[in-house]
Amino acid sequence: MRTHFDPQTMDAGDYYKLLTTSVVPRPIAWVSTVSADGVPNLAPYSFFSVSSSAPAVVQFTSVGRKDSLRNIEETGEFVINLATESLFEQINQTSANYDSSVSEYTAVDLESEPSETVRPPRVVASPLSIEATLHQVVEVGNSFVVMGAVTMITVRPEFLAEDGLPDFGALAPLSRLGRDEWGMPPAVRRIQRPDRP
């Protein structure tokens, strides 16, 4: 026997809470943008994934119209900074509803640095960043799926494993759960995928 939750009969806000406590854990895109007027913006989004590997396209979802979405539509560029355990407090602080004239970098005392291929800066303390140009925005219900064509991924050398790829243990990425819960880096188990059934 199961409890049933029908989206046709429930309030949309309550269903959002149900979805975000059901689809867990969710990786966090800490998105940096710049407004058309040159004001840097930084905000976390927990609906984040890869759209395509060839061409390389990443995506995040903005529930409602927010500064990040507006800035990307105006400038066509953004950076996803990896959200890590060591930056937990500052990531949470940048989720506050700051006025669009305020830079979250200044508000939460974060250092930025120039990106390689796009105008929005990246977070110095974040070990990995994904630079992207706008591929497309898809409106879905009350949300906007933002897809970005990857122009560069940068990783600080000390966060690379012996095979030259990012080291999960060193990165210590955060995830979002439901309510006000966050996921810390989980234990890792290795197993090879079978070649055939």
What does this structure look like?
With 197 residues, the chain is α+β, with helices and mostly antiparallel strands. It has helices at 12-22, 67-75, 88-93, 104-107, 168-171; strands at residues 26-27, 29-34, 40-45, 48-53, 56-63, 77-82, 112-113, 122-123, 128-140, 143-155, 175-176, 182-183. The strands form three sheets. Strands 3-2-6-9-10-5-4 form a seven-stranded antiparallel sheet, covered by helices on one side. 30% of the residues are buried. The mean pLDDT is 96. Keywords: Flavoprotein, FMN.
Q: In whole angstroms, how far apart are the ends?
A: 32 Å
Detail the poorly predicted runs: none
Count all strands and give the number: 12
**How helical, in percent, are the residues?**
10-25%
Mean pLDDT, to the nearest integer, reads: 96
Counting helices, strands and paired strands, the structural category is alpha+beta
Number of helices: 5
Give a nutshell description of this structure.
With 197 residues, the chain is an alpha+beta fold.
Write the layout of secondary structure elements.
Layout lengths: L11 H11 L3 E2 L1 E6 L5 E6 L2 E6 L2 E8 L3 H9 L1 E6 L5 H6 L10 H4 L4 E2 L8 E2 L4 E13 L2 E13 L12 H4 L3 E2 L5 E2 L14
Antiparallel strand pairs: 1-11, 2-3, 2-6, 4-5, 5-10, 6-9, 7-8, 9-10, 11-12
